[in-house]
């Protein structure tokens, strides 16, 4: 395994761990890691992170479901809205310039972090 593959595996391991613990990691961890550690184009990093979310989520939700900690009624409704939002976001991704995409993404992460810290 070469150095780049080792980095990619490490990114996946960290994303999976964060996903399992916090329900996050696909975008919040993978996008910056791909951009800054592997020099992947921002648009491709966002699209790649989205492709990672499904397998991570399937593994996590199976474990959560076995422990009876999933609120399925809420999950299904949020998933419906999420599918519509994902469709719209995927259509918009390539239309947003990189500098604006970074500002929006960074602002969202900072806002979410501040909300989590003050709650």
TrEMBL record:
Localization (cell): Cell membrane; Membrane
Transmembrane segments: 47-65, 72-94, 100-118
Domain of life according to the entry: Bacteria
Keywords (A to Z) from UniProt: Cell membrane, Membrane, Transmembrane, Transmembrane helix
Entries under InterPro entries matching the protein: TM_pro_TauE-like, TSUP/Inactive_protease-like
A cellular component term, taken from the record's GO annotations: plasma membrane
tRNA processing is among the record's keywords: no
Main location: membrane
Membrane topology, from the record: Multi-pass membrane protein
PANTHER family on file: MEMBRANE TRANSPORTER PROTEIN MJ0441-RELATED, MEMBRANE TRANSPORTER PROTEIN YJNA-RELATED
Protein family per UniProt: Belongs to the 4-toluene sulfonate uptake permease (TSUP) (TC 2.A.102) family.
Name of the protein this chain belongs to: Probable membrane transporter protein
Organism: Anaerosalibacter bizertensis
Lineage: Bacteria, Bacillati, Bacillota, Tissierellia, Tissierellales
């Amino acid at each position: 395994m070469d150095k780049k593959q080792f980095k990619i595996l490490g990114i996946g391991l960290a994303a999976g761990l964060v996903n399992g613990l916090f329900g996050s990691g696909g975008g919040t961890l993978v996008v910056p890691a791909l951009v800054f550690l592997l020099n992947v184009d921002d648009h491709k990093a966002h699209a790649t992170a989205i492709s990672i979310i499904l397998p991570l989520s399937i593994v996590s939700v199976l474990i959560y479901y076995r422990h009876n900690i999933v609120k399925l009624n809420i999950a299904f409704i949020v998933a419906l809205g999420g599918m519509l939002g994902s469709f719209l976001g995927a259509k918009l991704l390539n239309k947003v310039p990189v500098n604006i995409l970074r500002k929006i993404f960074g602002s969202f992460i900072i806002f979410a972090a501040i909300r989590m810290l003050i709650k």
